[in-house]
Specification:
flat, single chain, D-Maltodextrin-Binding Protein, domain 2
Amino acid sequence: MLERLELEAFLTLAEELHFGRTAERLHVTTSRISQTIAKLERRIGAPLFERNSRIVRLTPLGKQLRDELRPAYDQISASVRAASQGGSITQTITVGFSAPWSGNLLVRAAAVAQERYPDTAVDIEEIQLIDPLGRMRSGAVDLQLTEFPINEPDITTGPIVFAEPRALMVPGSHPFATRESVSMEDMADATLVTIADEHVPRYWMDEYFPRRTPAGRPIPQGPATNFWPEVLVHVSQGVGVSTVSLRARDFHSRPDLVFVPIHDARPIVYGLMWPTARKKPFVDVFLEVIAEVAESQ
């Protein structure tokens, strides 16, 4: 468990990349920040920052830790701010995400919304890919930022927020690992690690875990996993490969994984959706905030 100063020092330094400015923001001495970061790195057993007399920058492990901690920290901070305002929350919406980069965007949008509309709270939760629609259909989620396409009679799709290039995640020992890019046809020469599809629309599976190449060649299907960490394990151990957003390499970089762009694949499109029969009034307002924050990135 991270101590409060360790958490705040790490996240602030990851943003500022300057020990002096970090110390000023946290109202402590520069040496205290340096000691706190060093203590945290000793606990983790690896450096989180590269630093010398001229620069401070995150290591790959530091980037991964920042991206995993920031959404949760921002959500906790927003909840504390709301509570400090006397518990005057009159409406709450719950927003789901499936990819960490989508979650980061939603957390930033939630912080903006909290400042502008202090009587409304935005809760954010991760949606598992093996059941992308279940939380919405159960009434637990009011809005969701997810991979398109979504074509369901009881769900309304809204604006596309952003798109990311598609890649093939392969083990470091795979023949594809040394290539600058691969094609959709190359997937016939690899085993595709997929996800369990009991609750996933077939058209969605065909978009992200195809069974055939564009020319009709069969793509060998590997194990069907239940959670993303299982995909990482199977691929890293050479069981197969997986289609991913190229941006995943910024969040899941490790020595035994390589992210190879698929040069002829459609980009992965991320859009917003909500239940057709149950749209809370604040959803429209939050849609505008999301679009504003996404445009400023």
